[in-house]
Amino acid sequence: MTSDAAPARPDATDEVVDLCRDLLRIDTTNTGDNDTSAGERRAAEYVAEKLAEVGVDAEIHESAPGRANLVARIPGTEPGRDALLVHGHLDVVPADPDEWSVHPFSGEIRDGYLWGRGAIDMKDFDAMVLAVVRDWQRTGVRPRRDVVLAFTADEEAGSDYGAHFLTQHHRDLFDGCTEAIGEVGGFSYSVDEQRRLYLIETAEKGIDWLRLRARGRPGHGSMVHDDNAVTALAEAVARIGRHRFPVVMTDTVRAFLAEVSDVLGIEIDPDDPETAIAKLGPIANIIGATVRNTANPTRLAAGYKDNVIPGRATATIDCRSLPGQSEELERQLRELVGPDIAIEYVQRQPALETTFDGDLVARMSEALRAEDPGAHPVPYMLSGGTDAKAFSQLGIRCFGFAPLRLPADLNFSGLFHGIDERVPLDGLQFGVRVLDRFLRTC
Ligand SMILES: [Zn+2]
Predict the structure, then answer these.
(1) 3 state DSSP class of 398
(2) Based on the number of CB atoms within 10 Å of its own CB, is 357 exposed (0-12), middle (13-18) or buried (19 or more)?
(3) Rounded to whole angstroms, how far apart are CA atoms 440 and 442?
């Protein structure tokens, strides 16, 4: 064995598949309702058991019956250093077995993939973390700095019973943590046979979900009526739905596009980044949403009888704001809906953005390049939100880094919350090797 060869880690790379499979077989569907979100406790107990087997004590904290969150700390060898938080959620979005090629909770292995709801979002990463830590414990490896592990509930419904609960009620568990890794980043996008971009999340858009309320005069559906809440609401919803907000280039997107332009050898017009983004194929819909604020109507409610004009009507709009744009987005929306429609926020969580530099980024990049010589790590902004929103409230600098090497033809973004969610077995094992290198050195 030469000195620069990867350390032989057959245990962790073998075990990750079994760990991920076990987790996929625990149905942790998050319905958004505490009475029917049952599996998180079982999953947290499974993780606790796997950690206890190798001598790691974990604490489980329930925010409500069954809504379980697990936290454990692996002490580092250099106690003066800041700690690193490694977090993954255990819940998944619902899956309808009738739509799937395999049962979504069967953990089937087929065609080189492990299939199941949560395979990429994000029991794959949960399993990688467990595999690495178990391997370390068995072989006496210790990280340089404290590594705090958090396995959370409720990420898929806004994290109130998960990461937000932990940061609000168990802040002390994260003492000393200044940086964090979690979803959604570290996955590959193939440029050609030799080169792959690895998208590391350094920013995420804000969540600005709002409810519109229209009021009008109730009345009989058969009569002349010029103050109809449904009509007023429908007009406002249509104006929002058709509106395209202006392009706003953030530092992260600028850095991403500069790197892409370099690696792909294409010119990108800063005034029209979307033409270039459209050429990115499977990741175009992730990146495309990060050059402007967006607002998509998602729910409508009004009326109770076919011939009665209701006095009120409501709609929900899923808005996502770029870093620093939440106030501006609100101003634009108020202008679009006009003075007669009331706006209230159902959820408002700020966007995040950090820089793509420093030791932690260097260690991520090195670990990727060591396992894939064709790796080009690039920063990017996620259009959705993650548990990073909660952890960043503690002043923690959050990155999306759950490394996965993916086949060139896989529509990765389409698998998130999608039908036939699956993770390539070799990608999972690649992730373990990268994570192991990264966590040892960071
Ligand atoms: Zn997720």
Answers:
(1) strand
(2) exposed
(3) 6
pLDDT per position as a tens digit, 2-18: 444 454 445 888 899 99
Express each pLDDT in 383-392 by its tens digit. Answer: 999 999 999 9
Ligand 1 centroid vs 272 CA: distance in angstroms? 30
What is the distance in A from the centroid of ligand 1 to the CA of 233?
A: 33
Single-letter amino acid, residue 257: L
Phi, psi for 63 (deg, rounded to 5): -90, -25
Residue 172 makes CB contacts below 8 A (sequence gap 6+) with none
C-alpha span between 150 and 156 (Å, rounded) = 16
Q: Is the pLDDT of residue 268 over 90?
A: no
Query: What residues have their beta carbon closer than 5 A to ion ligand 1?
Result: 121-122, 183
Q: Is 131 left (phi over 0), alpha (psi -120 to 50) or beta?
A: alpha
Distance 156 CA to ligand 1 centre (A): 7
Cα–Cα distance, 40 to 407 (Å, whole number): 31
For residue 272, the SS3 value is: coil
pTM: 0.91
Q: How far does the centroid of ligand 1 lie from the alpha carbon of residue 153, in Å?
A: 11
Give the pLDDT confidence of 86-106 residue by residue, as tens digits. Answer: 999 999 999 999 999 999 999
Q: Locate 97 and state its tokens.
A: 């077995």
pLDDT (0 to 100) of residue 34: 85
- Rounded to whole angstroms, the Cα distance separating 124 from 107 reads 12
